[in-house]
Specification:
This protein is of the alpha+beta class. 17% of the residues lie in helices and 32% in strands. A ten-stranded mixed β-sheet has the order 1-2-3-4-5-6-7-10-8-9, sandwiched between helices. The N and C termini lie far apart (48 Å).
Length: 241
């Protein structure tokens, strides 16, 4: 299948960084990442990224919409993964930032960093990932991400990365046997999908929860920020109720 024009190109054979100077990591065909020999973000195979997320992310689930797969490396060892891709409703990005079409935005679908990574590693990984995206996908104008209250955070990492805060909305989900299930599983894919079937069969034991998701947006192309159709707010703090 041909690569879509807004998907990152394959870098070819990669030359890893050998100095402490921060900069782009190049392959024989295209840019591969950003950073220095001590800490860098670099494109990795989709199968590798998915394996890490399934094993280590709190959800233990991948997002099939992801098409940018980046590893986070410290002293040459992989200590994290970031996956970017389409939003849940890819063609509704125009309702967030005016005149946006598919390929002009990304959503940070999954991020996981090992406890081995030092303080502030998440914001550094996001910063390096954005630099890579800017070079590898020049048509991308903005990035959206959500901080999930299930994780006990308000999106501090996005605040440290200078994202714009666009408020929160409530998401309803079911908690069953220590896992979270989206309500759409009750009606969607009735003929397939073990998770949906398991939720429906055990709905009497499931606990319905309502938690907040905090929306953050980063404008790679700063001149697009006036197109934002959502209100912005001061960053939420731990005292938020």
């Amino acid at each position: 299948m041909a690569r879509k024009p807004f998907h990152p190109p394959e870098p070819g054979e990669i030359t890893l960084p050998t100095s402490e100077t921060k900069g782009y990591i190049h392959g024989t065909k295209a840019v591969a990442g950003f950073g220095n020999k001590d800490y860098y973000v670099m494109k990795i195979p989709v199968a590798e990224a998915r394996d890490v997320i399934i094993k280590h992310h709190y959800s233990h689930r991948i997002v099939n919409n992801s098409y940018v797969h980046l590893g986070v490396f410290m002293d040459g060892k992989r200590v994290g993964v970031l996956q970017f891709g389409y939003a849940l409703n890819p063609h509704r990005a125009n309702s967030i930032v005016a005149d946006t079409v598919v390929g002009q935005y990304l959503e940070l679908n999954r991020m996981w960093l090992s406890d081995e990574a030092p303080r502030n590693s998440e914001s550094m990984a996001i910063s390096y990932a954005i630099k890579y995206i800017k070079a590898a996908i020049p048509g991308c104008a903005w990035i959206q991400s959500f901080a999930d209250e299930r994780c006990g955070g308000l999106g501090v990492v996005y605040q440290a990365s200078n994202f714009v805060y666009c408020g929160f909305h409530y998401t309803t989900f079911y908690e069953l046997d220590g896992e979270a299930y989206h309500p759409m599983l009750l009606t969607a894919h009735k003929k397939m999908g073990q998770r949906g079937r398991y939720l429906r069969d055990n709905l009497d034991r499931a606990v319905k929860c309502k938690l907040r998701q905090f929306r953050y947006i980063y404008f790679i192309k700063k001149n697009w920020q006036p197109r934002l159709k959502m209100k912005t707010f001061p960053y939420p703090k731990p005292s938020l109720n």
